[in-house]
Amino acid sequence: MKTIRQCLIDFLLYESFSQNNLIIKLELTKKELAEKFGIQRPSLSRELNKMRMDGLIEYDAHSITIINYESLTSI
User: Fold this and answer.
1) Has this prediction a pTM greater than 0.85?
2) Which percentage of the chain shows pLDDT scores above 70?
3) Is 1 exposed, middle or buried (0-12, 13-18, 19+ CB in 10 A)?
4) Strands ordered across the beta sheet of 23-25
5) Considering all CA atoms of the chain, what is the largest pairwise distance in Å, rounded to the nearest integer?
6) What are 70's strand-pairing partners?
7) Which residues are CB-neighbours of 37 under 8 A, at least 6 positions away?
8) Helix (H, G, I), strand (E, B) or coil at 60
9) Looking at the predicted structure, is the pLDDT value of residue 4 above 90?
10) Which residues does 58 contact at the CB level (< 8 Å), separation at least 6?
11) Which DSSP state fits 66?
12) pLDDT tens digits for 8-54?
């Protein structure tokens, strides 16, 4: 069973590879993304904020930018 962070990292790495970019354009809302992971939207937002504070990502409503790719791949 994966943690929310692990699910997010897998998603970000997959999307980064498929979009061939460190700036990932989101086609889903946060609510839809949370449903995809089977979690509540506040839990998703909390983990995104933790990842931002850890210097891994930056995000807005339409995209997530991977700041520290090496750290993401090592987690």
Assistant:
1) yes
2) 100
3) exposed
4) 23-25, 63-66, 57-59
5) 29
6) none
7) 4, 7, 8, 11, 44
8) coil
9) yes
10) 52, 64, 65, 67
11) E
12) 999 999 999 999 999 999 999 999 999 999 999 999 999 999 999 99
Assess whether pLDDT exceeds 90 at residue 58: yes
DSSP string, 5-26: HHHHHHHHHHHHHHHTSSEEEP
Residue-level pLDDT at 9 = 96
Residue reference for tokens 């354009």: 25
Q: Tell me the one-letter amino acid at 30.
A: K
Give the pLDDT score at 69. 93
Q: Is 32 helix (H, G, I), strand (E, B) or coil?
A: helix
Q: How many residues does the chain have?
A: 75
CB 25 within 8 A of CB 64: no
